Amino acid sequence: MSQSLGGRPIIDSDSPPMDGFEYSFRHLTEITVKFIDQLKLDRFAVHIMDYGAPIGLSIAST
User: How many CB atoms lie within 10 A of CB 59?
Assistant: First the structure.
């Protein structure tokens, strides 16, 4: 915790900064598909819910 915002600590994160990364379902789907391809998976089960649902459904529909 290196900074504070309104008296609340800001926790450091390994997440890419908001202004340097495209946080969209399309982009997150592309990243996930690249990860699946790198693992050379040809079959897998997908459990989808909440925020990841659009990503899982997009992958399942291709």
Answer: 16
What pLDDT shows up at residue 54? 94
- Residues 1 and 19: their CA atoms lie apart, in Å, by 21
Instruction: Name the amino acid, one letter, at 1.
Output: M
Could you report the per-residue pLDDT of 24-59, keeping only the tens digit for each? 999 999 999 999 999 999 999 988 889 899 999 999
Which residue type, as a one-letter code, is found at position 38?
Answer: Q
Q: How far is CA 53 from the centre of its chain?
A: 11
Query: What 3-state DSSP class applies to 51?
Result: helix
Check: CB of residue 32 under 8 Å from CB of residue 41: no
> Hey, where are the domains in the chain?
16-60
Give pTM, 2 decimals. 0.71
